[in-house]
Amino acid sequence: MAAATPAAVRKQIRAGAPDPVYLLQGDDEVEKSGLAHEFEELVDEELRAFNVGRIHAGDWTTGDRLADGVASIVAAARTLPMMSPRRVVIVLHADALLAPKRESEAAARALEALEALLKQPERETTLVLVAGSLDKRTRTYKLLTRHATLVECGVLEDLGDAERWVRNRVAAAGAEIAPEAARLLAERGGTDVNRLRNDVERLLLYALGQKTMTAEDVRQIAGPAALQDDWAMTNAIEAGNGGAALRQLALMLDAGAPPEKILGQLGWLVRTKFPLAAPRRVRGAVDALFRTDADLKRSAGDPRVLLERLVVELCAGNRPGARPA
Predict the structure, then answer these.
(1) Candidates 1.25.40, 1.20.272, 3.40.50, 1.10.150; correct CATH number of 229-318?
(2) Are 63 and 106 in contact (CB under 8 A)?
């Protein structure tokens, strides 16, 4: 089989043409849970009680439990659907199943039974395994690469994925968000999961107690889309616009950008742009960079304050008419 994106899998579900076996993997628990739940749409709602099975494998920590668990999966997958063209079996927390912590004769037999099911899955059953990040060197994982469709969750391809991610994250927090608000948040955060995660967390705090979060709430916490350009801060420094550069710095930090990454970006600016734009300021800018780097490494102050001071220093030398130090 091959790898597939969550968006491609959703198309298969809507078309009613799923593959026999899926492995949903990755660290984004909300995305995995949401996608696993969508497989239930392959069965009419009134028939799901008979044709959708959810099995939790998280406590299969011994060989005997693993053997019993695999037997239950095989039995569920081999059972013919009732009054439905398809049956769905979802195995949650499958890490213990796919990568057992203890080797034993019972565990070895269990894995053999699982491998037999993967090699010859039931045509009328869709088996969905949900796990974290797995060791790709194991025998079971290599078998999955040949017989299952691998889906990496938490990777966003387009704004549609980002909007769906926002809705799932808000729903997981027990809140509601208006469609236009989810769309606006996705447009402003793009496909950057870290930025979206921070924006959603701020939105949940900002709108705490509200029945539904609105587009106006998003405007209050997310800032203009134009300010989400990763290079807007360096462009503002080149123009000597300290106010704009500080606003962009704040957006980057609020979106979860590591201070070290921002410092690296400023270092690139000094190395590549300053020699032409402000040659007499290069030495002072380099000294400021090294000082800030040392202060960050020895925790000599709030990283936000240290970077703000550096940005102000770099802007001061690039303002029109600025005199060299």
Answers:
(1) 1.20.272
(2) yes
Q: In what order do the strands lie in the sheet with 87-92?
A: 3-4, 149-152, 21-25, 125-130, 87-92, 52-56
Q: What is the pTM of this model?
A: 0.60
Instruction: For residues 268 and 265, give the distance between their C-alpha atoms in angstroms, rounded to a whole number.
Output: 5
pLDDT digits (tens, 9 = 90+) for 272-285: 888 887 788 888 99
CATH code 1.10.8.60 region(s) in the chain: 159-226
d(CA 86, CA 321): 73
CATH fold of 159-226 reads Helicase, Ruva Protein; domain 3 (1.10.8)
**Tokens 């995995």 correspond to what residue?**
32
Q: What are phi and psi of 128, to 5 degrees?
A: -120, 115
Residue 233: C-alpha distances to residues 185, 219, 309, 320, 324 (Å):
21, 20, 14, 17, 22
> CA 303, CA 296: separation in Å to the nearest integer?
6
How far apart CA 4 and CA 149 sit, in angstroms, is 7
β-pair type (125-130, 87-92): parallel
User: Where do you find CATH 3.40.50.300 in the chain?
Assistant: 3-152
85 pLDDT tier (thresholds 50, 70, 90): very high
Place of tokens 């078998």: 143
Q: Phi and psi of 52, rounded to 5°?
A: -120, 120
Distance CA 31, CA 152 (A): 10
Residue 65: CB atoms within 10 Å: 17
Which CATH number, 3.40.50.300, 3.40.50.720, 3.30.365.10, 3.20.20.210, labels domain 3-152? Answer: 3.40.50.300
